[in-house]
Amino acid sequence: MKKKLALMFVAVLTAAVTLAACGNSQVEPTEAADTAVNTIIYNKDTDKFKDVFGEDATNLQKEIKEGFKKGFTSSLNITDGSIDKEVEALYDTFTKRVDEVTKYKTKVTNDDKDKPTVEISINGLDMTTVQADMSTKLQEKVKADPSIQKDAKKAAKAMLEVYQETIAKAKVSDKAVKVKMNLESNKDQWKIKDADTFAQSLYLAFFTGTVQ
């Protein structure tokens, strides 16, 4: 009788463990980080992003692109829409080059079950070299057409044209920068703490090879 009870207990315990495992679909923190990077930076894994974080990534990707456009046009003080196409093309060039040459690694630095931290080590675009190349090419353009210096829109378009050329050939930075991803358990999914700040830091690291 005792043997039968013991076997029954083992069977029930095994079933309980199996059911618990099936019910917990939360991915490992490093996989969550991979999903976030692939979605925010490489425009991939949008469906998986929703499974992991419970949010639709489409709006996030759109906000990132719009933020880039607004930031760029504002910095050039041209917000009448006259350079929107060029800025959008530059964004596409950035994302294409980032996809081609950048790389990253992830590791858990705080393995707290409910609030882990993942460190993302990123080799982004080498903007130091890009800026140097841009400066040289812009000087050449101004020398060929001095009127560029007197026309703000003409100057902006010349700069965007040079930016396109240099970004398309940008190399990956030898120096890795680190971005921390703080996660919070949300039932069988994860929540990114300070998600907007994290996304901005990630974007900056991959697009410029720097951190704030």
Automatic annotation (TrEMBL):
Start and end residues of each DUF5105 domain: 19-207
Keyword Transferase: no
Keyword Signal: yes
Signal peptide: 1-20
InterPro entries linked: DUF5105 (IPR031343)
Highest taxon, organism lineage: Bacteria
Record keywords: Signal
Short name of any one Pfam family annotated for the protein: DUF5105
Protein's name according to its UniProt entry: DUF5105 domain-containing protein
Organism: Listeria riparia FSL S10-1204
